[in-house]
Structure formats: structure tokens, C-alpha cells
Design goal:
Transferase(Phosphotransferase), domain 1; five-stranded antiparallel sheet; 548 residues; 11 helices; globular; single chain; Immunoglobulin-like
Length: 548
């Protein structure tokens, strides 16, 4: 584990750790203010996609001012590490609280939902969609109020950011990679509200494909909730985004009307009191300042793929179900193999040699940026001016959910909730194109979308290539088939090369007729000049396979 620490802070103990890093309790040496420092892990720091994603989270938090979201003090990045210095939230995660007492009283669940909606509404107002709202990312304070944390996979409203999130809370449109929208956050918040009310998640599929189909087509389980709030559950868990409130703020008025009518004018005071008592009990039993790291694991799901299932439960999806299930299966494959994710493209890997800051408040001061110290292996350059906060761009490659970890009482260093479409061994690497590199253009991202089976041997997909200039770009696409996921693939036909210029984004419609008989189809793309995210690939389970 890296021993690098943010200059100007004294670290006292580790609060939590996960695959993507750790969170430490520290004190700002100049002001004495306690803070939470979220470090990117050493193994991920050398992979530019993760660094860009970490930096994007800091930029987002730097532009978000909300009493319901854990605030950012400073972002520091140097050759030896990257860290986000955040507000230390004294409290416990909603997940920890539910593990000790569930279901909650309706008033307490309503208070949690209202606080979360207000935090999400502040993000939605600046065009940011959280995309990973869940109990692990809500911290309940001793006074019964709550704060939202972990914007690690947030995306700008309307951007196509790929399939990402935590399966049990993902809206139907998230399973198909539709553009990010506030309505998806409303869905996730309502799914968590349902869990608070009933002690269980809305859907409990045995595998990702089943869970995806339940979220997309299953009946809304509103009858399991108390009768006075069933209308809220139906509204927030509506299958179509346009049937839900368009923004979290729109849902608050409906919540207050329903709560006041059913539980009286003092519902909020009673609910906050009950949450405060539960939070105090949890803090008494497991105080957040206790020594040693703690780990908690979010949702996991397991999918078993076979050609000849021992249990005769054939899976023969069609149309919409095929697309959703294919995405879920890809998610399971990525969970199994732990392939890298790609991240929003903010800056270039070369920027890792500098210290960057995105500051919303200085510990112990009323305004201004905290001093940012570069920590290079050569004499320190002068620190740049604080970056202007901005919402994150679309994810460079369609992504899928993974399990994460969270640290009580502070921002969670969750295991990467997203990973990239699989560069599996099921296909041969794309042939390099002969086009010479262009000195005046760089490819920032390559994204596949809509990869689906259209016939017994045909498939379509779309490919979007984004550049930072209008110079010439060559895109090479290779198709392959395989008998098993992760097995040795066979190239299916020759490579196709597309040459584009004159714009900064190109969308290419692709279609292919497969000659091979493999159960799995794979499409991958590379570019010349080489893309900063390494290109893209996707794997599709065809109708020739069964799932159990």
C-alpha cells in the first residue's frame, strides 16, 4: 500500500478501504480541522482512466454547494499519488443503520428520502446525475440529518455514460446504457426508500439477467409498503423515466404532501428523532473513530453460463429482454474478470506530474483555496490556479456495475462501481491501421453502444469516437466469435477501417453477418492515433446460449 500522504495534513488512522483506495482521518495542520482524505489506490494510480475518473469526481464536488452533500476542500495530485480532501461527516452509513434495524418507521424513512432528494436536487440543478445512489452512499448524522457521498461515477445530465451503477438500485434505462438523467436518481432513491420501509430491496433476482428483467418489466412491489406511501413508491419506481418526477426537487413536494396527510404536521420532527436515536446507538456500538480499517461490501450478483444447464430452465429472450439481459451478462463477466473501467476524460495522463486543486472551502477559513503542494520527484513546479469546477463528461467506454466498499463516517472509497467493456481473450486484437499519426489531433474516447443481435447470424452496433481536434483519424473494427466467454476467439472476417476528419466526434453505424458458430460474439475497435482510453470492446451472449 502506498505511504504517500497529502502535504499539510497529519493522518491519524484509516477509516475504511476498498479496491479503489482508502479513506483516512486526518487533521489540517494549519487550522486543526479534522478532514477525510480519500486516496486513490497505488495500483489504480498508474492507470490513466482511473486517474481521470478520480479527478472528475473532484471537479464535480468542487462545483457542488449543498448542505446535503459532503463537501470538498481540496484535490491534490502528484507523481506519487492522488487524493480528495473532504468534509468529515460524523455519522454512520444508512447500510449500517439498516443492518441493525430494518424496516424503519415510515416517518424515519421519509426523512431519509427527503434529505437525499434535496442533495440530489442540488446536483441536478448544476446538471449532474449521481448514478449510484444506495444506502452505502448515505451517511446519517447523530442529529438525524443525512448527507450524500461518493460521486465516483456521476455523469453530466443527458450524456451517454454507459451501463453503470449498483444492480439493486439501477433504473430500467440504466441497464440499457441510455443517457444519464435525474429520473434515474429518483428511481434509485425510491428503491432505497422501499428498502427502508420493508427491510428488503424491491427486486431480488438470482443473477444479473434476472434482476435486470425485473427492474425493466417486473411489477412494482408497492403493496409491500405501508398504504399511505404506496403512491410515492409507484411514482418513483415507474418503469418509464417520463412517468417519474423529472428531477429530485420535483419529488420533494409530493413527498411532503403525502407525509403530512398521513402522519401529521410533525412527521419530520418525529422521523428525525428516530433516526438520531438509531445513529447514536450505532455510533455507541461501533464508534467511527475506533482503530483499524473496516470494510463493507455492497451488492454482488453471480451469473452462471452453460451450454447444457443441469437445471432445465431455458432462457430464450427476445427484443427488449435480449438487450437488457446481454448487458447484464456482460456485467457479470466483468465482475468475474475484474477488467479495467474507462473514465470521463478530464485532462491527459501527463497532468499527473502536477498538483491540481478544485476547492470549494478552505478548512478553518471562510473562503479561498487551500495551498496546493506539488509532490514531484523533481523540484516542485509552481502550483496552478484552482481549476474551475465543472460537471463530468460522458464515460469513455460503456461501463457496468461492480461491487464496492464504503467507509463509515466519511466518504466511501468504494471498489470501482464501473468497469470497461471487456477486452476478453475471446477475440484477436484489432489489426493496426497504416494511417500515420496526426500531430494535431488526439483521440480522447472510443465508445460502443447498442450492440445487439438482430438475426440468427447478424448484429448491429454503433461506435462513437471523440477527438480534441479535427485532424484525420482511422478507426479499425474487428469482429470475432468464441465458444465460451473468455475463451480463445476466432476472427470473423477481415478488419474494417473507417477514416474520418473535419469534426471532433464521429458516430459510425456498424453491422455484421457472422460466419462462425460461436456462442459469444465480440466487437472491438482501435484508432490511429491511439485512443487515450485504449480503444473499446463489447461481448454479446447470443441466443445460441442458455443461462441458468
Amino acid at each position: 500500500m502506498s505511504t504517500w500522504a497529502v502535504p499539510g495534513y497529519t493522518e491519524s488512522r484509516e477509516l475504511g478501504s476498498g479496491a479503489s483506495g482508502r479513506v483516512a482521518l486526518a487533521v489540517h495542520e494549519e487550522s486543526g480541522l479534522p478532514v477525510a482524505v480519500k486516496y486513490l489506490s497505488e495500483s489504480l494510480r498508474t492507470r490513466p482512466g482511473f486517474v481521470r475518473d478520480f479527478r472528475a469526481e473532484a471537479r464535480l464536488l468542487g462545483g457542488l454547494r449543498s448542505a446535503h452533500v459532503a463537501g470538498l476542500y481540496e484535490y491534490v495530485e502528484g507523481p506519487d499519488g492522488a487524493a480528495i480532501v473532504m468534509e468529515l461527516v460524523e455519522g454512520v452509513s444508512l447500510r449500517a443503520l439498516l443492518s441493525r434495524q430494518a424496516p424503519l418507521a415510515p416517518e424515519a424513512a421519509l426523512v431519509l428520502l427527503k434529505g437525499s432528494l434535496l442533495g440530489l436536487a442540488d446536483a441536478h440543478r448544476i446538471g449532474v446525475v449521481h448514478r449510484d445512489y444506495k444506502p452505502e452512499n448515505v451517511l446519517v448524522r447523530p442529529d438525524g440529518t443525512s448527507k450524500l457521498v461518493d460521486f465516483g461515477i456521476a455523469a453530466a445530465d443527458g450524456t451517454t455514460a454507459g451501463i453503470a451503477g449498483t444492480p439493486s438500485y439501477m433504473a430500467p434505462e440504466q441497464w440499457t446504457g441510455s443517457p444519464a438523467s435525474p429520473a434515474a436518481d429518483v428511481y434509485a432513491a425510491t428503491a432505497t426508500f422501499f428498502e427502508c420501509l420493508t427491510g428488503r430491496k424491491p427486486y431480488a433476482g438470482e443473477n444479473l439477467a434476472e434482476l435486470a428483467l425485473q427492474h425493466v418489466d417486473g411489477p412494482i412491489p408497492a403493496d409491500a409498503a405501508p398504504e399511505p406511501v404506496r403512491a410515492l413508491v409507484r411514482r418513483g419506481l415507474a418503469k418509464a423515466p417520463d412517468q417519474r418526477p423529472a428531477h429530485a426537487g420535483d419529488f420533494v413536494a409530493e413527498l411532503e404532501a403525502a407525509a403530512g396527510g398521513a402522519y401529521g404536521a410533525d412527521w419530520e420532527e418525529r422521523g428525525r428523532g428516530r433516526l438520531a436515536a438509531l445513529a447514536a446507538l450505532c455510533l455507541l456500538l461501533v464508534p467511527p473513530s475506533s482503530g483499524g480499517p473496516r470494510n463493507s461490501v455492497t451488492d454482488t450478483a453471480r451469473t452462471v453460463l452453460t451450454r447444457t444447464p443441469r437445471v432445465l430452465r431455458a432462457w430464450r429472450p427476445g427484443g427488449r429482454s435480449l438487450l437488457v439481459s446481454a448487458a447484464a451478462i456482460a456485467a457479470a463477466l466483468l465482475l468475474a474478470y475484474g477488467i479495467d473501467r474507462q473514465a470521463p476524460a478530464f485532462g491527459t495522463p501527463g497532468e499527473a506530474a502536477q498538483a491540481l486543486a478544485t476547492t470549494s472551502a478552505q478548512p478553518g477559513a471562510t473562503g479561498g483555496a487551500l495551498p496546493v503542494t506539488a509532490v514531484p520527484d523533481t523540484p516542485a513546479p509552481s502550483a496552478p490556479a484552482p481549476a474551475t469546477p465543472s460537471a463530468p463528461a460522458a464515460s469513455a467506454t460503456p461501463t457496468v456495475p461492480t461491487a464496492g466498499t464504503s467507509a463509515p463516517a466519511t466518504a466511501s472509497p468504494s471498489a470501482p462501481p464501473t468497469v470497461a467493456a471487456p477486452p476478453t481473450a475471446a477475440s484477436s486484437p484489432a489489426e493496426p491501421t497504416t494511417a500515420p499519426p496526426s500531430p494535431d489531433v488526439a483521440v480522447t474516447s472510443v465508445v460502443f453502444g447498442g450492440f445487439r443481435q438482430t438475426g440468427t447470424a447478424t448484429a448491429t452496433a454503433s461506435l462513437t469516437v471523440t477527438t480534441d481536434g479535427t485532424g484525420p483519424v482511422a478507426v479499425t473494427v474487428v469482429w470475432s466469435t468464441a465458444e465460451a466467454s473468455g475463451g480463445t476467439g476466432i476472427r470473423d472476417g477481415g478488419a474494417d477501417t473507417y477514416r474520418r476528419s473535419g469534426s471532433t466526434q464521429y458516430t459510425i453505424a456498424l453491422d455484421h453477418t457472422f460466419q462462425g458458430t460461436g456462442c459469444y460474439w465480440d466487437v472491438r475497435a482501435s484508432t490511429q492515433p491511439a485512443s487515450a482510453d485504449g480503444g473499446a470492446s463489447q461481448e454479446l451472449l447470443t441466443r445460441r446460449c442458455t443461462l441458468r
